Fold:
Amino acid sequence: MTTPVRLEPGAAAPAFTLLDQQGEKVKLSDFKGRKVLVYFYPKADTPGCTAQSCGLRDVADDIGDTVILGISPDLPAKLSKFDAKYSLGFTLLSDPEHATAEKWGTWGEKKLYGKVYMGIVRSAFLVDEKGKIAEAW
Structure:
């Protein structure tokens, strides 16, 4: 198994083009000149992911002009239902083949009840106006 990349502040944010919850293509470069909070979560409408997404929804007005992009392996139809159910109001992106998650270092080994499997490692990144990683959590 290859060691996942680890994005550090100052690194260029890996480019991506993914479908949003409406089935429209969204590119990270669409937001050049603005701060973007990119967060990766394992599965829409599960307790932890719902709490994380609703928490971001609840602070969205406090973070100014920062764009919020949530990325998971879920398909657009599921993302649309998740957005509508919780009135998230920001863009959710579908990465079913986890190619973007791999480029961002958020696809990795996880354990649940003693079972080892590959999945999304919950992570967040603040991308600055020039497309560089400003913060990584």
